Amino acid sequence: MSLERGEYKARFEYLTQKAKEITLQDGNHVPVLIVEGSRGLAISQMREVPDTHGERLDLMRSLGQAAAMSGKFGQLRQVFFISEGWMSVASQEKPPNMRPSQDPNRKEVLIVSGLELKRQQKYLRIFEMVRNPSQRVVDLAELSPPHDKDGRIEIPLLDAFAQGFRLAFQAQVS
């Protein structure tokens, strides 16, 4: 059975809605990686995520390799990642010169990202976590996702996962 073209988008929207519900209910969202291949699906909570972007890229590449080598997935169809993070907002004059977690004007955000491999379609929704004075999340205000000058969305963590998966998968079949 093959997925119809609109099913990827529908799944992404469904996951986004569920992530918002969990965040509003629990006040946070544990990082979750969802991997779907032609032979299987896995949903994994990630209790520990490295601090630096480079380390997170390495982790996702390694997870992609491990998923491919497990043989449980067949061809990779899509991968989703849901997590919290910090976001800095650049002024038009200059980009931020510090890590978002160190920026005094940072925003706490919920990030839902997806990559559909067949068409190389990327999905990204970012929500600012609005807290009341007692620190309870009371709203998730959608923010515009960052994109390059051509309007493309970059999702380096999912690209790293897909790259790791592809390299390990090709090594197994050759």
Indicate the radius of gyration in whole angstroms: 17 Å
The structure class reads: alpha+beta
Compute the number of strand runs. 6
Q: Order of strands side by side in the largest beta sheet? A: 2-1-3-4-5-6
Number of domains: 1
Mean pLDDT: 88
Oligomer: single chain
What is the H-and-E element order? HEEHEEEEH
State the distance separating the first and last CA atoms.
26 Å
Beta-sheet strand percentage?
A: 25-35%
The amount of helix comes to 25-40%
Poorly predicted ranges: none
H/I helix tally? 3
How does this structure look, described?
The chain is α+β, with helices and mostly antiparallel strands and 174 residues long. The chain has 3 helices and 6 strands. The protein has helices at 5-26, 53-70, 156-173, and strands spanning 32-37, 41-45, 76-87, 107-116, 121-131, 137-143. The chain has a 6-stranded antiparallel sheet with strand order 2-1-3-4-5-6, sandwiched between helices. A hairpin with a 3-residue loop joins β1 (32-37) and β2.
Provide key terms for this protein.
174 residues; 6-stranded antiparallel beta sheet; 6 strands
Summarize this structure briefly.
With 174 residues, the protein is α+β, with helices and mostly antiparallel strands. 33% of the residues lie in helices and 29% in strands. The chain has one domain.
List the SSEs and their pairings.
Layout (H helix, E strand, L loop, with lengths): L4 H22 L5 E6 L3 E5 L7 H18 L5 E12 L19 E10 L4 E11 L5 E7 L12 H18 L1
Antiparallel strand pairs: 1-2, 1-3, 3-4, 4-5, 5-6
Helix pairs in contact: 2-3
